[in-house]
């Protein structure tokens, strides 16, 4: 029977190599990661804050510009109304005439005096609305003035027919889609300087 035990003269077996120890991130690595994350958060927060500040500043500048343009428009329209009132004051009021034919002529004379005013409204509107998002002179407001002039022209035509023996003529003031007088909206939305000439034009019988 053979003895399989190692003899003292046999060399000792070499130990198996140890597996390399797994190295962790370490305290320094975690410190760098946290610091980098904090820097990134700060940069993102600063960028967002700057974007908000720029948006607010832009909105403030735009509102300031809008208010300035609107004030300039109202000043121009107020001056146009003053010029219209001065032209009307140089004419004989329709209510001071005798007979329908004379009244029709007086109404048409006032309508002619109003033409430069209507043209000025269009000029002001075109000058200040171009290049802006807002419409500082409402198209409906200037259209309302034209409706008043057109209603007066129809009244003058009716007066001519009455002068020729036709039915009596009556002034029919224009109304909006809600059946409200157009003149009320013109007075409410326009400068105070326009109230006088508007009342004269909307009361051609006086």
TrEMBL record:
What segments bear the compositional bias annotation Basic and acidic residues?
A: 197-206
State the residue spans of region: Disordered.
1-22, 187-206
Q: Which domain of life is it from?
A: Bacteria
Give the transmembrane region(s): 32-56
> Which keywords does the record carry?
Membrane, Transmembrane, Transmembrane helix
**Which ranges are annotated Pro residues under compositional bias?**
8-18
Query: What is the recorded name of this protein?
Result: Uncharacterized protein
Protein's organism: Catenuloplanes atrovinosus
């Amino acid at each position: 029977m053979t003895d399989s035990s190692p003899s003292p003269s046999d060399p000792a077996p070499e130990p198996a190599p140890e597996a390399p120890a797994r190295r962790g991130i370490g305290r320094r690595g975690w410190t760098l990661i946290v610091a980098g994350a904090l820097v990134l958060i700060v940069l993102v927060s600063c960028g967002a804050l700057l974007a908000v500040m720029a948006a607010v500043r832009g909105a403030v500048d735009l509102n300031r510009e809008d208010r300035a343009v609107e004030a300039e428009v109202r000043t121009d329209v107020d001056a146009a109304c003053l010029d219209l009132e001065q032209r009307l004051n140089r004419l004989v009021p329709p209510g001071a005439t005798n007979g329908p034919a004379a009244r029709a002529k007086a109404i048409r004379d006032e309508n002619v005096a109003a033409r430069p005013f209507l043209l000025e409204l269009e000029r002001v509107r075109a000058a200040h609305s171009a290049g802006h998002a807002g419409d500082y002179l409402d198209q409906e407001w200037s259209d309302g003035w034209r409706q008043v002039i057109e209603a007066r022209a129809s009244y003058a035509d009716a007066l001519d027919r009455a002068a020729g023996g036709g039915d009596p003529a009556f002034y029919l003031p224009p109304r909006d889609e809600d059946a409200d007088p157009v003149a009320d909206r013109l007075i409410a939305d326009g400068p105070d300087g326009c109230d006088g000439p508007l009342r004269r034009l909307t009361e051609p019988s006086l």
